[in-house]
Amino acid sequence: MHVKISIMFSLGLVGSSIGSLLPSSQYIFANPSPAATSGFRIPTVHESAIQARRILRLENIGTLSTVFPSDSSTSQHAIHPLEQRPGGLGGVPIGLMDYYADCEPDSGNPTILALDIATSFKNVAAGSNITLSLRWHPQDGKWHSAASLPRFSLVGHLEDIDDADASKVGLATCFVKNHPDAVAWLPGNRIHTSRWVRLVVEEIYWIGGFGDRAYIGWISLDAYHNVTQQEIDGCKLPGEKSTWGWSEWL
């Protein structure tokens, strides 16, 4: 009996300790007090577009979603034997991580280094459409509910960037600044055939966070393109570190 009581007491202490580490329930389940929400409003579509362009600027990794071609339309020469691709994947979507960079900031079209051997670009070559999905990762090191943070998808098509345009805007320098390891597979490398492409944005679907305090829905292409560089620079995302420094005074 004494042993049972001792075990129950110990478990109670453990539960109490764990409970002390968890966020207060008011941050998870309760709505903010009226005083805390006075003057609060859900961001407009334009303000959401600014956030999307800010995320595009600060992030550099996203998920490319494509669809496998039908077996009948798949060229066996396009599938490497070591890939061991199973049959019956026609029409099945797949999302894969890939690098991008905001190297043409005025356009809002992300720059991608396409490797012809990669599944995403094989699918596009076979006729698939493509979507780039991004989400914001706070920089302050504090705990944030991932469900409360903004994320969005850019629906569009890939467009090749010729060498002259790539050189004019310094794509290689911009991309390697974001992804130093990508220097190994820049166009002309000995490992894989690669090329510069831009994802030409056609549609934008936005989830700003929880629906009672953020906009969720489509952002028009005009709203996305009409965002100015000044607005992007002036936007601060949840958990974004301040870029202030003494250099601003010099």
UniProtKB/TrEMBL annotation:
Every copy of the CREG-like beta-barrel domain together lies at: 43-226
Sequence intervals crossing the membrane: none
The name this protein carries in UniProt is: CREG-like beta-barrel domain-containing protein
**Signal sequence segment:** 1-19
Which keywords label this protein?
Answer: Signal
Q: Does the keyword Plastid apply?
A: no
Q: Which Pfam families match?
A: CREG_beta-barrel
Q: Which Gene3D superfamilies match?
A: Electron Transport, Fmn-binding Protein, Chain A (2.30.110.10)
Q: Which InterPro entries match?
A: CREG_beta-barrel, Split_barrel_FMN-bd
Query: Which species is this record about?
Result: Aureobasidium uvarum
Q: Does the keyword Signal apply?
A: yes
In terms of superkingdom, the source organism counts as: Eukaryota
